[in-house]
Design brief:
alpha/beta, 367 residues, four-stranded mixed sheet, disordered N terminus
Length: 367
């Protein structure tokens, strides 16, 4: 029985990325954009500090100096469509070859007024914008917090390995600027963007997605990230819900759990930290990402690491949730990040943490 199972596993195809794309909005938002903001504490008390001091402290902690916002006349799937179109072109495939479209998002097609909309699904909207006529191209949305795109990749890998599909488009797109509380300092973290890849089955062995891992802690961690009313008790719109982040709890949870989950994935792949070419960590905030990667290296007995192994985009792009990892992958793959490239046969770790709380990780070997 064991030999039969091993034979089946050995005959399963590998899942490789054959094309990528991204869409980073042109609109650059720096600290001066928030100088006229009024901020409140989580307890609903007015913060009586100069805004330039609040912004400077924020930059010191997160390293986010700029972020990108979508234009008012665009929506989430406009970004996802552009990223998908790039990925299809890069993969040199016909769009009608796509068997599944998986679209990761947290808030769906948010209007410029901040109203979320998931009907029809994001994936169906993108299929429509791409003009795909194939009725067997299945559209599927992934609602999984910031790890949604990575989880979409894990789902796609399973579908490819089981022979349910040959070619899958996986998109991560978000417009968080439209769901932030104008009175919450954490609004400075969030941004907009989209990234996409084409994942395809291949019979080539020991390439592509090698191992995956997902952890869901949904007990006391459930509301570390949530939707809630404005921090301003006198806000004009009383019942509107905004993204709310309990930063300290998330930081402590991530630092305790993410490095361990990543190491588990690497152990299953049979590799060590010396084998890793790049670590593409979800761009949550720079302090947290530095701490998670540092803790990962410490699990292998290393007190220092070359920061080039873990590139970051958050300083200029902000936290665009599900879009951060595919955007970073696309920029590196196309040589558009200074000093960064992927090497043939190199191992890449993709890891994320977010609302749920959920953690996931992929070990990927470049063909």
């Amino acid at each position: 029985c064991a030999l039969f199972i091993l034979k089946i596993i050995k005959n399963m195809p590998s899942s490789v990325i054959i094309g990528s794309g991204s869409c980073v909005p042109d609109r650059i938002i720096d600290g001066s954009y928030f100088m006229d903001s009024v901020f409140y504490t989580d307890a609903g008390d007015l913060i009586d500090k100069p805004n330039d001091e609040v912004i400077r402290k924020f930059i010191d902690i997160t390293e986010i100096e700029e972020r990108r916002y979508i234009d008012d006349d665009l929506v989430n799937t406009d970004l996802g469509y552009q990223a998908a179109k790039e990925a299809i072109y890069d993969a040199r495939i016909e769009k009608e070859e796509i068997d599944y479209i998986i679209y990761a998002s947290n808030f769906g097609e948010v209007t410029k007024e901040g109203i979320p909309n998931f009907m029809p699904s994001m994936s169906a909207r993108v299929k429509n914008k791409l003009g795909i006529k194939n009725r067997k191209c299945i559209t599927y949305d992934m609602i999984f917090g910031c790890p949604g795109w990575v989880e979409g990749m894990i789902l796609a890998d399973n579908l490819l390995k089981l022979g349910k599909a040959k070619t899958i488009l996986v998109i991560g797109g978000e417009t968080l600027s439209r769901v932030t509380d104008p009175y919450d300092r954490n609004k400075l973290i969030f941004a907009d963007g989209a990234g996409a890849v084409i994942l395809q089955a291949t019979n080539e062995e020991n390439v592509g997605i090698i191992t995956t891992n997902t952890v869901c802690d949904n007990a006391e961690e459930l509301n570390y990230l949530e939707c809630s009313k404005s921090l301003n008790p006198d806000a004009e719109v009383k019942d509107k819900l905004y993204i709310r982040m309990h930063g300290r709890k998330i930081y402590e949870y991530a630092l305790k759990n993410v490095p361990t989950a990543v190491k588990e994935t690497m152990d299953e792949a049979g590799i060590s930290i010396e084998d890793i070419d790049k670590i593409l960590m979800h761009q949550a905030n720079a302090k947290m990402d530095h701490a998670m990667v540092s803790r990962l290296f410490k699990l292998y007995g290393k007190s220092e690491y070359d920061e080039a192994v873990s590139p970051m985009t958050i300083q200029k792009f902000g936290n665009s949730s599900v879009a951060t990892i595919p955007t970073m992958y696309d920029l590196i793959a196309k040589g558009e990040m200074d000093g960064q490239s992927f090497k043939k046969g190199g191992y890449i770790v993709m890891g994320s943490v977010g609302a749920g709380m959920n953690i996931n990780c992929i070990v990927y070997k470049m063909p």
